[in-house]
Amino acid sequence: MPEEGIVSPLPSQRALGDLVTDVLREMITGGRFQPGQHLRESQLADALRVSRGPIRQALARLEVEGHVELRRHRGAFVSTLTKADVEEVHTLRGAIERLAASRACTRMQGKGFAEMDAVLEQMKLVDTKPDPEDAALLDLRFHDIIYAYCDHVRVQRVWASIRGQIMVFLRARNASFPDFLEVGHIEHLELRNALALGDPQAAQDAIDKHISGAYERLKRLNLPNQ
């Protein structure tokens, strides 16, 4: 549970429910809370200096996203990563990202590829073992570009709904298998070059290869089945 003073008072210009959701999501994906940890509404409200209403609203949203489990008469708990979670999110991501890539490869043109190249340059400049969260953020930043240019609002909404869970998966994977220096830049560069062909089928094939490799690493994590 965060200590008093760690979190600054929340500004009033945005809906408190949205702000609290963003803060708690970031704390969960960043490892501030551990899997299975009890999230007590009163303590969260005190730490964030809000009433319990926005906390309750945020926890309900985070349950929908898969970050939190709400247990009857017991409260909210940080979700525990399982093999079933990884398999479900992986297959869903594979389906939407194949579609996103097949559309984005014909729409990105110069600006989109320049944005990818900027992220690739950041990956290339990593010369020491990166923090697991930093490596995951670079990874997701690259894939955000694909979704940004796919011109498909519903696909973008699905990506937004599972992005936080993928962040959790990548962070756990990077902590257990710190091979970002070996595979991070080169694998994403291969994907970028495939997208640059402007061929939807080539883009889908490249996504299949990229995501299947990531899934194989995730399956090596010592996770419970359910």
Tags for this model:
Arc Repressor Mutant, subunit A, 226 residues, 2 domains, three-stranded antiparallel β-sheet, single chain, mainly alpha, DNA-binding transcription factor activity
Give a summary of the structure in a few sentences.
This is DNA-binding GntR family transcriptional regulator. With 226 residues, the protein is mainly alpha-helical. It has 9 helices and 3 strands.
Number of domains: 2
Number of helices: 9
Strand residue percentage? under 5%
Largest sheet: number of strands, sense, barrel closure: 3 strands, antiparallel
Q: Which range best describes the helical content: under 10%, 10-25%, 25-40%, 40-55%, 55-70% or over 70%?
A: 55-70%
* Low-confidence runs of at least 5 consecutive residues: none
Task: Name the CATH homologous superfamily of the largest domain.
Answer: GntR ligand-binding domain-like
| CATH class category name of the largest domain | Mainly Alpha
Overall form: globular
Gyration radius (Cα, Å) is 19 Å
Average pLDDT taken over every residue: 88
